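Q: Protein A?
A:
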Amino acid sequence: MYKRWLLGSVILAVVVGIAGCGNSPVAVVNGVRITESEFNKRLVRNFGRDTLSDMIDRQLIKQMAEEEGLTVSEEDLNKEIEETKKQFPTEQDFIRWLASRNMSEEEWREALKMAMLTRELALKDVKYAEKDLKAFFNEHKDRYAVPTLVSLSEIVVASSKDAQEVLAEIKKGEASFGDLARVYSLAPYTKARGGKRREDTPLERVMPQPIRVAANKLAVGEVSDPIPAEGQWYIVKLDDRKPAREAGWEKDKDRVKRDYEGAHAKPLRSLLDDAIEKSNVQIVDPRFQELNEIYMPVPTDMPEFGPAGAKKEPAEEAPANATGESGS
């Protein structure tokens, strides 16, 4: 549910972020200007309908939450922000993620707040006791078992010779593994992070397969010998290992609660349909008139035509040969 609002924010940032009109150029191609008005016209044509629909949906959700007396406190929002940021290895990774989506942190904050408000509405009528959560846990126990998790750093080079030279540098101890990764590694994503791969990766998902085999044998802090894989050479360091564990109610009950709520939450489409049913949404711009079909409430009581109180007679059954042709 959060993803819908975050996606809407991306589109909104693209369209609104360049709002304006005029003949000033946004680019010049070999002396030919691409004007701001041409650029905006293309954006409205390609993204305008989705952006307007997203903005209407947001207003409907906000108004519905206000009617229900539901709010998102700054304390809860800040807590959710911190939890979300923990999914990124570093603050810089989070900033790059925002930049890749053309969003400021304030825009993302508002999108997250909207997602939380939507969740409040979706869970408004979800009631449960601990026995319900325990039953859900027992039914989905395999979901909560945790496999062996590893955190790895890597240096990727082109040849065995290069790998041996880097390994010799590591053994000298004059520079850290991370510093050497930033200098020598050919893997762009991990190179920028001092060689670090994503933390707490299930061992069974570590790729390529020779790296997984090596990671399973290394002790924490140990560096591997050069490993050939997929046409390159890897040197990996095991930064951390967390052993596998079975599911346990006490350890997993917070996650069980989230999953239970997610399984029983009212779908966003149903929330919006409920809001539309009792709202008056008018699409004024002629370019987006087809949205009226989405936001026009469907009458619940269809009128009956004919004399008041007239009783409808059951229709006669059609003959087997309705065309009147003979069966011969």
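Q: Protein B?
A:
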Amino acid sequence: MNNHARDRRSKKTKLIIKRIGGPKVVVFRSAKHVYAQIVDGGQVIASSSTNEKGLKGKLDSKKVDQAYQIGKLLAERAQEKGIKKVSFDRCGYKYHGRVKAIAEGAREGGLDF
């Protein structure tokens, strides 16, 4: 039941993002981890997650703080590749908590959306 609501919410956003074109930030969250990728035309350009080997000991203890740091890291990696303007695809998740923290971290890191 829960996935049906998420699918319904994501349809409108996906159509808008597809119309705009260009790279997009795609977010996935599980119970323990959060993943963010910048995708352009089906290819992953940059990614970051709380599940990366080098980051596990360096992240804060709160999940929202971890998501914020992942957003900043994603923005740094995107700027190394020359990407500044993206669309934000929250994949049907509500814009609050960890999803909002990723967006705020990415904006502070220099991404424009």
